[in-house]
Design a protein that fits this description.
- By secondary structure, the protein is of the alpha/beta class.
- The protein has 3 domains: about 210 residues, 3-Layer(bba) Sandwich (FAD/NAD(P)-binding domain); about 110 residues, FAD/NAD(P)-binding domain; about 110 residues, FAD/NAD-linked reductase, C-terminal dimerisation domain (Enolase-like, domain 1, 2-Layer Sandwich), CATH 3.30.390.
- The protein is about 30% helix and about 25% strand.
- The chain is built from 14 helices and 24 strands.
- The strands form 6 sheets. Strands 1, 2, 5, 6, 7, 8 and 19 form a 7-stranded mixed beta sheet that branches.
- Helix 1 packs parallel to helix 9, helix 3 packs antiparallel against helix 4 and helix 3 runs parallel beside helix 6.
- The chain starts with 7 loop residues before the first strand and ends in a 7-residue tail after the last helix.
Length: about 475
């Protein structure tokens, strides 16, 4: 007997359960909407399962492995440091499991229905949700698409057991003796640094003039200096041509200045970017506008050209950041509820968990100049901070960007220990319309790295205490 496919009606359907989708679903439910969230994979999406969280866990383990070797400057030396990489991977998995189960609990606690399956749009009010056995129609009033992105595979480096994407790079069963990384963006630099801390000989091959090209040259220089200390090699202006798999690993060929070079390694990690997951949803059935990169076009409320369908996260323009997706998810959910929420990226931080960390928010010095803003860039070095000295981690600086006429904080960049946490204060200052004087008058505990922000604000005011 064939059972009829009777449509299930919901107020808001969220497609994708990553950091954009699940946050959008919870916010929509808080606002009184009847919400169903659908994903073919695990709750938490790429970020929680094979991205942000497991990579940071691996990076932290790498830091501990590196620190365990001791430090001659501090008079601490160790011998025969052992690393049980299977245990490292088990611990990393436990972190992921705690967070994904937490997401499930939050969704259920907010009365969001969770459905497993693939979504295909029939029209602007209906989708088919398909699993291995069945197909079910869902009818919605509004829909938020949050399907995320996937690693880009280049034809000359097809993924295999030895040619890895970021997911494969996080799942290795042993520490490789050598690793080639194709692409020196934030993913390649983060994972390359992590494995270098474990003792892997890392070679980063980058096609552009420098790695981490979206950050300022002075910031990149600090990270490259640390990579060199770890024995990593960075090759820029290099065209990756192909890979040959051998019995023991890979042989990677690349070209620099017209000369062909080869490097052998256990694995090659390909991190040349990510592509939006928009091609298999049937968006053309609805007439949703997509640009030539596969990105969905949206307005200030994350609404597509189809009035009741919204898009957020990696499938819309902007950096593929988990916190950007979450932010957009809240805006979309609130817009559906009739609120006047709009996206504003001026306070959107970008962070790289390199060694040392890099972070930026608001305007850079160059961006402010390009906009014709009469600005002031005020730097303070980690080397002049007591806490950084006591950590024996003094490379780097904080730069505060302020408007000359009134000292308004419009941006900031940090390279140094804990930059990922420190950037939030500058982001708050931008969002709250604070000035350098507001930061300088805020008493910061001593000795802390946070004092560097206060010191940079004093530099902006022309009254630095701990710098001539």
């Amino acid at each position: 007997m064939v059972v009829g496919d009777f449509p299930i009606e919901v107020d808001t359907l969220v497609v994708g359960a990553g950091p954009g989708g699940y946050v959008a679903a919870i916010r929509a439910a808080q606002l009184g909407q009847k919400v169903t969230i659908v994903d073919k994979g695990a709750l938490g999406g790429t970020c929680l399962n094979v991205g942000c969280i497991p990579s940071k866990a691996l990076i932290q383990a790498g830091h501990l492995a590196d620190a365990a070797k001791g430090n001659d400057d501090l008079g601490i030396t160790t011998e025969n440091v052992s690393i049980d990489f299977a245990k490292v991977q088990d611990w990393k998995g436990s972190v992921v499991n705690r967070l994904t189960s937490g997401v499930e609990g939050l969704l259920k606690g907010n009365k969001v229905d969770i459905v497993k399956g693939e979504v295909y749009f029939v029209d602007n009010n209906n989708v088919k949700v398909m699993d291995e056995k069945d197909s079910q129609t869902y009818t919605f009033k509004d829909c938020i698409i949050a399907t995320g992105s996937s690693p880009i595979e280049i034809p000359s480096f097809p993924f295999s057991d030895r040619v890895l994407d970021s997911t494969g790079g996080l799942a290795l069963k042993e520490i490789p003796e050598s690793l080639v990384v194709i692409g020196g963006g934030y993913i390649g630099t983060e994972l390359g640094s992590a494995y270098a801390n474990f003792g892997t000989k890392v070679t980063i091959v980058e096609g552009a003039e420098d790695i981490l090209a979206t950050f300022e040259k002075q910031m990149r220089s600090v990270v490259k200096k640390r990579l060199k200390k770890k024995g990593a090699e960075v090759v820029t202006n290099a065209l990756a041509k192909g890979v040959e798999e051998t019995d023991k690993g890979v042989k990677v060929t690349y070209e620099v200045s017209g000369k062909e070079e080869t490097v052998e390694a256990d694995y090659v990690l390909v991190t040349v970017g990510r592509k939006p997951n928009t091609s298999e949803l049937g968006l053309e059935q609805v007439g949703i506008e997509i640009d030539d990169k596969g990105l969905v076009k949206i307005d200030k409320q994350c609404r597509t050209n189809v009035e009741n369908i919204y898009a957020i996260g990696d499938i819309v323009e902007g950096l593929p950041l988990a916190h950007k997706a979450s932010y957009e998810g809240k805006v979309a959910a609130e817009a559906i509820s009739g609120q006047k929420s709009e996206i504003d990226y001026i306070g959107m931080p970008a962070v790289v968990f390199s060694d040392p960390e890099m972070a930026s928010v608001g305007y850079t010095e160059q961006e402010a100049k390009d906009e014709g803003i009469d600005m002031k860039a005020s730097k303070f070095p980690f080397a002049a901070n007591g806490r950084a000295l006591s950590l024996n981690d003094t490379e780097g600086f904080l730069k505060l960007i302020t408007r000359k006429e009134d000292g308004l904080v419009i941006g900031g960049q940090i390279v140094g220990p804990n930059a990922s946490d420190m950037i939030a204060e500058i982001g708050l200052a931008i969002e709250a319309g604070m000035t350098a004087e507001d930061i300088a008058l805020t008493v910061h505990a001593h000795p802390t790295l946070g004092e560097i922000t206060m010191e940079a604000a004093e530099v902006a005011l022309g009254t630095p205490i701990h710098m001539l």
